[in-house]
Automatic annotation (TrEMBL):
PANTHER family: PROTEIN DETOXIFICATION 44, CHLOROPLASTIC (PTHR42893:SF46), PROTEIN DETOXIFICATION 44, CHLOROPLASTIC-RELATED (PTHR42893). This is Putative efflux protein, MATE family. Belongs to the multi antimicrobial extrusion (MATE) (TC 2.A.66.1) family. It comes from Nitrosomonas communis. Keywords: Membrane, Transmembrane, Transmembrane helix. It holds the Pfam family MatE.
C-alpha cells in the first residue's frame, strides 16, 4: 500500500521560526532555579538551601522519568500533522493528557515512599532532610498538572506552535518567580512557600494551555472513547515511552557517574566540575531549541511521506546546529574565565576550573551531532534505536573513563566527549536504513 505524499516548504525561516521561541523558553528555566535559591538563601539558614537543593534533585529525577510524555507526544503529533489527520491530532493530546494526569495521581499516592527512598540514598543531615521533606511533599501535589504540562508542551511543539510553547514557559516560570518571592519572602513561608509557588504556577500554565488548545478541537473530529483506548495505539505509545524512559535513565546515570567520579578526585575538583557543568547546560539550552525544530520537521515529514522535506530539514537543522555549536564553543572559550569568576569568588576553584576550560568549551561541537540526531529520532519516533544507541554510548563512555582514568579529571572530561561523540555517530549510522524504511512506499 502506497501513502500519498503531502509536500510542504522547508526553509531557513521555518527552522528559525520553530527554534527561536524554544531557545528562549528553555533559557527561562535556569533563571527560576537562581531565584528560588536566592529566596531561600535570604532566610539565613544553610540547611534550608540544602533542603531545596536535595528536594529539587529528587523531584527532577522523578519528573525526568516521565519526560517521554513531552518527547513522545511531539513525535506522534508531528506525524499526524504531516498526514493532515485531525482526529489523530486530537486523539494524541487527549491520550497523553489522560496518561499524564493518571500517572501524576499515582505518583502523588507513592510520594511518601519515593521521598523515603530518596532520603535514604542521599543521606542528608537531619535538618536538611526535614526541609527536603517539606519541599517535596508540597511540590508533588502538583504532579498531575506537571505531567499534563509535559503533554501540552509536546503537542504544541508537534504542531509547530513553538511560540505557544514559549508563552506557556514564560507564564509558568514567570509566575513561579513572582509567587516564590511573594510567598517565600513577603509572607515569610520560606521553602514551603517556594514549593507552593511552583505548584500554583504549574496549575496556572496547565489551565492556560487547555484554554489555548480548546479552539483546535472540533466536534466533527472528536475521537471516540474506543479510539482513545485503542489497544494497538496504547501499546505503541507504551513501547515508544519505555524506550525514551530507558534513554533518559541512561543519560541520568552518565551524568551522575561523572559527578561521583569528580567527588572521588576531591572537593575542589568536584566544585570546579560543578561550575563548568553549568557551561555545558547553558549550551544545551541553545542546542535544544534547534532539536525541537528537528523533532517537528522530521515527524511532519514522516507523516507527510515527504522524503525531500525530511532530507531538507535534516540538512538545515544540522547546518544551523553546527553554526550554533561553533558560536557557543567560541563564546565559552573567550568568556569562560570571567564566567567562572562570576559563579564563584574562590580563587582556588577558579584556577582549578580554568585548567579544564578548553575541554568544556569544545563540548558543544562534540555533542552537536548527538543533539541533532536526538531531535530527528524523537520526531520520527524511532525510539528503539535511541535507547539501544544510548546504551552503546554509555558502555563506550565507561570504557573510555577506565582507559583514561590515569589522567584524572582530564580523563573524566575526555570520556564525556567520547560519550557525546558515540551517541551522535551511532544514531547517524542508523539513519540511512531508517530513511529507506520510512520512505520505501513514497510515490
Amino acid at each position: 500500500m502506497t501513502h500519498p505524499t503531502r509536500p510542504f516548504t522547508v526553509n531557513h525561516r521555518l527552522v528559525f521560526g520553530l527554534a527561536a521561541p524554544m531557545i528562549l523558553a528553555y533559557l527561562t528555566t535556569p533563571l527560576l532555579g537562581v531565584v528560588d535559591t536566592a529566596v531561600v538563601g535570604r532566610l539565613g539558614e544553610a540547611f534550608m538551601i540544602g533542603g531545596l537543593a536535595v528536594g529539587a534533585i529528587l523531584v527532577d529525577v522523578i519528573f525526568t522519568t516521565f519526560n517521554f510524555l513531552r518527547s513522545g507526544t511531539t513525535g506522534l503529533t508531528a506525524q499526524a500533522y504531516g498526514r493532515e489527520d485531525e482526529i489523530e491530532i486530537q486523539t494524541t493530546l487527549l491520550r497523553s493528557l489522560i496518561i499524564g494526569v493518571a500517572s501524576g495521581i499515582i505518583l502523588l499516592m507513592f510520594t511518601p515512599l519515593l521521598l523515603s527512598l530518596g532520603l535514604y540514598l542521599m543521606e542528608p543531615s537531619e535538618t536538611v532532610a526535614i526541609a527536603t521533606q517539606q519541599y517535596v511533599l508540597i511540590r508533588m501535589l502538583g504532579a498531575p498538572v506537571t505531567l499534563g504540562n509535559y503533554a501540552l508542551l509536546g503537542w504544541f511543539i508537534g504542531l509547530g506552535k513553538t511560540r505557544t510553547g514559549l508563552l506557556l514557559q514564560i507564564v509558568l516560570n514567570g509566575s513561579n518567580i513572582i509567587l516564590s518571592i511573594f510567598l517565600g519572602l513577603h509572607l515569610a513561608l520560606g521553602i514551603e512557600g517556594v514549593a507552593a509557588a511552583t505548584v500554583m504556577s504549574e496549575l496556572l500554565a496547565f489551565l492556560l494551555g487547555l484554554l489555548i488548545c480548546y479552539p483546535y478541537f472540533k466536534c466533527s473530529t472528536w475521537p471516540s472513547w474506543l479510539r482513545l483506548m485503542d489497544r494497538a495505539a496504547l501499546w505503541r505509545f507504551a513501547n515508544l515511552n519505555f524506550d525514551i524512559m530507558l534513554r533518559s535513565f541512561a543519560l541520568l546515570f552518565a551524568f551522575a557517574f561523572f559527578t561521583t567520579q569528580g567527588a572521588y578526585l576531591g572537593e575542589q575538583t568536584l566544585a570546579a566540575n560543578a561550575v563548568l557543568m553549568n557551561f555545558f547546560m547553558l549550551a544545551s539550552y541553545f542546542l535544544d531549541g534547534l532539536t525541537s525544530a528537528a523533532e517537528q520537521l522530521a515527524g511532519r515529514a514522516i507523516g507527510a511521506n515527504y522524503r525531500d522535506g525530511f532530507m531538507r530539514s535534516l540538512k538545515l537543522t544540522l547546518g544551523w546546529n553546527i553554526v550554533m555549536a561553533s558560536l557557543l564553543a567560541t563564546m565559552l572559550w573567550i568568556l569562560g574565565e570571567p564566567m567562572i569568576a562570576l559563579i564563584t569568588t574562590l580563587e582556588s576553584i577558579q584556577m582549578e576550573a580554568a585548567q579544564y576550560l578548553l575541554l568544556v568549551a569544545l563540548l558543544p561541537l562534540t555533542g552537536v551531532l548527538a543533539f541533532q540526531m536526538d531531535g530527528v529520532f524523537i520526531g520520527a519516533t524511532w525510539s528503539r534505536d535511541m535507547s539501544r544507541m544510548m546504551l552503546v554510548s554509555l558502555a563506550a563512555y565507561l570504557a573510555a573513563w577506565w582507559w583514561l582514568r590515569d589522567f584524572a579529571n582530564d580523563g573524566l572530561w575526555l570520556a564525556l566527549h567520547v560519550f557525546l561523540l558515540v551517541r551522535g555517530l551511532t544514531l547517524s549510522a542508523r539513519l540511512p536504513v531508517r530513511i529507506r524504511q520510512a520512505f520505501s512506499q513514497t510515490k
